[in-house]
Structures are given as C-alpha cells and as structure tokens.
Amino acid sequence: MGAINTITNARRSEGAELSEDDIFETLSNRRRRFVIHALKHAEGPVDVSALSIDVTAWEFDIDREEVTYDDRRNVYSTLKRTHLPKLEEKGIVTVDEEAHLVEPTPALKDLDIYVDVLSSREIPWNLYYVGLAGVAAALLLAITTGTPGFAALGPVGGGVFVSTAFGVSAVAHYVVGRRTRLGSTEKPPEARKRE
Asked: Do 162 and 136 contact (CB within 8 A), yes or no?
C-alpha cells in the first residue's frame, strides 16, 4: 500500500551520508515514518509523550484528544525501546533521556521523503506515464498514417496535444507529490489516505 517514492540529500549530523540501506531500513517501519513525519512537521524538539500521542492517533485513525493512556502505552514503550534508538543510531535524531525530548538533526531536515500511498483503485504515476506515452504514440501514428478523424489534426496539432497532456500531468504530479512528502501536512500521507 505505501511505497517510498523519492529520497534525497540525507546527511548525518557529523557529515557522512546515510546509505540507501540505512534509509530504507529506517523507513521500513510505519511507526518510524510517523515519527519522522511528526518531527519534520514540528518547529523544534518534541516530547516523547506528545510524539506517542500523535503516532497512536494516526495508527488508530482517531483525534489526538481521543487517545487514551492504554492506547498510547505500547506506542510510547516501543518508541523508547526500539524506534527512537534506531533513529538516533542512524544520526537522524537526538534523544534527551532526562528531558524526554526528541530533536531532529540536520540529517532529518535534509531528508525529503515522498510516500506514495495508493488505494486499490489508483494507478501509480509510473504506469500513468507509460499509458500516456502509449496514447501519444498511437495518436501520432494515427496522424502520420492519415487515419480518418486524426489526419485533420496534423503534426502540429498532435504535438500541441501531446505536449499539453504531458505538461498538465507533470503539474498534477508535482502538486500530488508535495502533499505526499513526510512532514508537509498535519497528518502523514498513510493516515490521510484513510479519510
């Protein structure tokens, strides 16, 4: 259902780049993706309790105010024991154990992650562009061979149609891509898809 579409420019705070394996391992878990989304959306350090409330709300698809202590207890525990240490190990966050605060490092700030979340009725962008290229090729072939109804369009008209179709598609892809970037909206892409 969810796939990591694009990852760019990730660096650890000490200057070394995160490997693709590190990035994919980090993003392989939905809770870690939710943590990254919350931290990218926040304006500074985040309290671990507040982070666990956000993650729980997104997992259960409920409002923050509806999260109970019992709901978030497991999330809080796994964040503290597993997910935050893994993110800290990779240099993506720093955790202040005494203050119970999590702060993003420059590596997280430089990490642009687009999550492509598709429902069963949606077509992935790569297949959409293959289909659009197929339609464009068929149209140009019809114009070239003088197929009735298409011959009148001419090469210039066909070129304008194809250019316009790809241009509009690229703008739509850009707009959708901005909305599917972790940290760019209030809820993560995976949680918004259920709405």
From this structure: yes
Q: Tell me the one-letter amino acid at 179.
A: R
* Type of residue numbered 19: S
Phi, psi of 129 (to 5 degrees): -70, -35
Q: Which of 94, 108, 95, 114 is nearest to 12 (CA)?
A: 108
pLDDT per position as a tens digit, 123-169: 677 788 888 999 999 988 888 888 888 878 888 888 888 889 989 98
**DSSP states of 8-71 as a string?**
E--B-TTSPBPPHHHHHHHHTSHHHHHHHHHHHHSSS-EEHHHHHHHHHHHHHT--GGG--HHH
CA R_g for the chain: 22
Q: Report whether 39 contacts 145 (CB < 8 A).
A: no
Burial of 69 (0-12, 13-18, 19+ CB in 10 A): exposed
Q: Is the distance from CB of 190 to CB of 2 less than 8 angstroms?
A: yes
For helices 20-27 and 30-41, the axis angle rounded to 10 degrees is 100
> What structural domains does the chain harbor?
2-116 (1.10.10), 119-178 (no CATH)
Cα(68)–Cα(101) distance, integer angstroms: 21
